[in-house]
Amino acid sequence: MVRKIRAKLVLQLRAEGLSGRAIAASQAMSRKSVTAVLEAADAAGVGWEAVADRPEGEVYALLFPGRGEHESVFAQPDWDQVHREMARVGVTLKLLHQEYVDACAVAGDPAMGYDRFCRTYQHHVLVTGASSRVGHKAGQTVEVD
Questions:
Q1: Distance CA 143, CA 57 (A)
Q2: Looking at the record's lineage, which domain of life comes first (predicted)?
Q3: Cα(37)–Cα(31) distance, rounded to whole angstroms?
Q4: Which of 12, 29, 37, 75 is 20 to 30 A off residue 89, Cα-Cα?
Q5: Sign of the CA dihedral 8, 13, 19, 21?
Q6: What is the DSSP string of 46-83?
Q7: d(Cα 3, Cα 82) in Å, to the nearest integer?
Q8: What letter does residue 112 receive in the DSSP assignment?
Q9: Sign of the CA dihedral 87, 93, 99, 103?
Q10: The Cα angle at residue 117 between residues 114 and 119, in degrees rounded to 5
Q11: Tens of pLDDT, residues 88-142
């Protein structure tokens, strides 16, 4: 897995007067990565003052537009609809995945496998902060840690 370069940190250390080699040595980064950030910042005319209050991801996207982004080759279901369906009684991810595969076959689009479907749904739930309601009758069951 490729890690993103910490571009904001490189620009901060450059503003403090460190050389490219010193930045690379102090942050355990390759000199090539540091040079790439410095050249991209010079080409964009961006310095530490311009990015000091921006988040790291935004700085990286500013210096390297389009890098790190990829579009899935698989057709994406409406994840909000999938989450709403999961709230219904008797609906499972396996059932929703099969409906998704059938819809992709009709449309002629490639469908993702069950494992990827589950991981992508899990990522959607984490990113959106969605949570599932657990229905129960009071006093019917007891849960003990």
A1: 42
A2: Bacteria
A3: 10
A4: 75
A5: negative
A6: --HHHHTTS-HHHHHHHHSTTTT----SSPPP-HHHHH
A7: 31
A8: -
A9: positive
A10: 110
A11: 889 999 999 999 999 999 999 999 999 999 999 998 888 777 665 666 677 888 8
Report CA-CA distances (Å) from 85 to 60, 97, 106, 111, 125. 37, 12, 21, 19, 13
Overall residue count recorded for the chain in this entry: 145
**71 contacts: CB under 8 Å, gap ≥ 6:** none
Q: Are 39 and 2 in contact (CB under 8 A)?
A: no
DSSP 8-state class, residue 143: -
**Strands, E, within 1-145: which ranges?**
none
Tokens 């990827």 -> residue: 116
